[in-house]
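Q: What would this chain look like folded?
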Amino acid sequence: MASPRVKVARDKADLVQKLLDTRGTTGVFQTYADIVIFAASLGMRHHQKIPLQEISQSEPAPISLEVFISRGYEWVINLIAISDTQDTQILATDNSEIEVQRIAILEEYANGGLAKLREELRGAVDYTERLLLILSAERFPIHNKEEEFDLSRFL
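A: My prediction, written as structure tokens:
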């Protein structure tokens, strides 16, 4: 049986191509698998899970699951799946239907993360700088809670 493939939405394919580090571009990721995992993690973080409508058939073509496994991303896929379903049965390796379900969860969170990235990167010339700002904001969130002035302190 052929290895399952991870698909990218057609409307996000252009963004994914721009994020890929090729000669003469401002991309920052080495492979499409890196982009998908980053986007899925971002989508999971922001609870953005968007089902794929149309699938990109050209660039990026569906990516073999073996690419993700060879890059060490199997644990990320499993964490996203178990976090989404809250069911340990999603980790079963002997059932091809469950494997397809894990991939679908990854694709939906990646699609949500790519939507968030498209919004955040709009108008950016250098994706590297903007991605560093996004990561910095995630690591060191600024809480802008406006507190009421409490007069009881002066009593």
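The mean pLDDT is 83.
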